[in-house]
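WARN no homologs supplied; continuing
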Amino acid sequence: MNVRRRLAASRINTAGIAVAAATALTLGSLSACSSDSSAADGDSSGKLDVVASFYPLQFLAERIGGNHVDVSTLTEPGQEPHDLEISAKQTAQLQESDVALYLKNLQPSVDDAVAQSEIKTKIDAATLTSLEKHGNEVGGHAAEHDDHEGEEGSGEDPHIWLDPVKYAEVAEGVGKAFEKADPDNAADYKKNTADLVKELDGLNTQFEDGLKNTKTKVFITTHAAFGYLAERYGLTEEAINGLDPESEPSANRVKDLEKMAKADGVSTVFYETLVSDKTAKTIAADADLRTDVLDPIEGITEKSRGDDYFQVMEANLKALQSALGAK
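OK structure emitted
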């Protein structure tokens, strides 16, 4: 009996070991599958998770980060970035990111969310170049409503990306921040930044050469988004509105624009893709001017004249050359 019991116990013990081994193998396989799935989903990909506030910064992050970053944007294509109010879901997305890339005073709701977050790397593009005050230029001073505290806060013009030189300065700052946040891939960030800056230098040369000789240096836009571009290339932007694209011009402002257009040989009133063109077309009709698109590139949509920043900027150059009578 003792021999039989020992044999039975031995069989039970052996079976237990086999079951335990099989269970361990199964759990190991499941764990491996789970790990592979997480990596495929990007949860454990090791990539830098970057949240950009709107398109121009998203474009920089994607070009500089390359394959080492996952980039998302808080401003959907077609949405006017000045009007953005981020949702609870977007706030949570921001909180979970590695890097927040934004432009302070352009989107107050983003500023608040970033300030309250515990994100390790916060990159404010406004600190990477110098900002200036721009507005309506008729009479040599900004329009009265531009002196008031508005969504741009200090009144400084945030549209730095429309000047290729300033945009390149921002790109260099973003590249350095990425290198610091992810030192293992610093060499790639450095190379990608250098390539992008070189391309922006080429764009600057295109604008310099293309706008050097024109019949007039004055152009009219719906809102004062092109102050940096105008200053860079020796032009004068006359904005129907100030920095706020949704504001309405006064009757006196409209009269001033019509007089100025006649005096300076202005042929075109420019409007943009993300804001109503009604005011621009009304002024153009009253002053017997034509209309065209000058895109502030705050987002890429089906209406955009190009698929990315460079293509739309080149379309803007052609529009300006036509309006200004480039020789």
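The chain has ten helices and eight strands.
OK
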